[in-house]
Amino acid sequence: MAEKVLMKGNEALAEAAMRAGCRFFFGYPITPQTELAAYMSKRMPKVGGTYLQAESEVAAINMVYGAAAAGARAMTSSSSPGISLKGEGISYMAGADLPGVIINVQRGGPGLGGIQPSQADYWQATRALGHGDFRVVVYAPSTVQEMADYAFTAFDVADRYRTPVMILADGMLGQMMEPVVMPEPRDERIEKPWATTGHKHQRAHNVVNSLYLTADELERLNVERYERYAAIERDEQRAETFLVDDADVVVVAFGASARVARSAVVEARAKGVKAGLVRPVTLWPFPKDALEAAVPTARAFLSVEMNMGQMVDDVRLAVAGRRPVEFFGRTGGVIPTPVEVLARIEDLDERMKKGGE
Prior knowledge:
Layout: E1 4-8, H1 9-19, E2 24-27, H2 34-43, E3 50-53, H3 57-69, E4 74-78, H4 80-95, E5 100-106, H5 122-127, E6 137-139, H6 144-161, E7 164-170, H7 171-175, E8 177-181, H8 215-235, E9 239-242, E10 249-252, H9 255-270, E11 275-280, E12 282-284, H10 288-294, E13 300-305, H11 311-319, E14 325-329, H12 338-356
Parallel strand pairs: 2-3, 2-4, 4-5, 5-7, 6-7, 10-11, 10-13, 13-14
Antiparallel strand pairs: 1-8, 6-12, 9-11
Helix pairs in contact: 1-2, 1-6, 3-4, 9-12, 10-11
């Protein structure tokens, strides 16, 4: 049996990425993800990889572009303002159909904000990570173990669909320490016939590019890309459900907020309130199927987030007006407490019962 080790979330993700075959890391320090880059700086040379602290976030993402174009598994990490600076390069990667992994350990905002945990980059990650017609697969871990596990998943999905993938964590998960079983290293040689690895007259010359001056050609490529996105929406949705089968109030929460919400659901059950939890693991594709399965028995939904209300839009779209959907959140780096969430669950449950009388 693999041994459990006590690790900080940022470091667990970094170690797992290297075990998943990442050999190129380009980043720039910013709290609260700096430990991830610092860990990479020590460990990457020991596994035959390259660590480079770029001169800026803009430079870092374009270095990922270059390494990915050559067929390598490459990664960058940052925190909220730094991800904004990487947006143009991420769009270029999507336009060139390049796989790569982007880590966002969120902090409070907007602007420089603060260094405390936040989930206020949900819209950015799922709606506006860069300009143009493209999507990015987004994973939201809620434990240090998942920080490690989804590093593997992120690289695999990125290569499978030739798309950038984001792991959207937050300062709480990045900084906290928990026991983790580290996945075993993999040394896979993934065939990438499209990569710019030198052809030696044995194949057609490969070109990696995101510039297409002919409108018809760009439209054709965008339509083809969205066919892949449709396959991702069909096959890659992930969610965890907890006590949902008979729940009157279904709480929807991701990442660190889901840990708080789960405690509140357990306490609500102890007090006789039928509460349950749907935890989206993929934020895009949003796990609509898990919400759809909860609609027939639920009387109401409560979206719990560390922001002013962002994922709640996707919950409402999934529920499609068939049940009430309410929101509770704390922002600016304030973490909601189980007591606060429990109070909202009880209030919502009471109002639903009165409304049904």
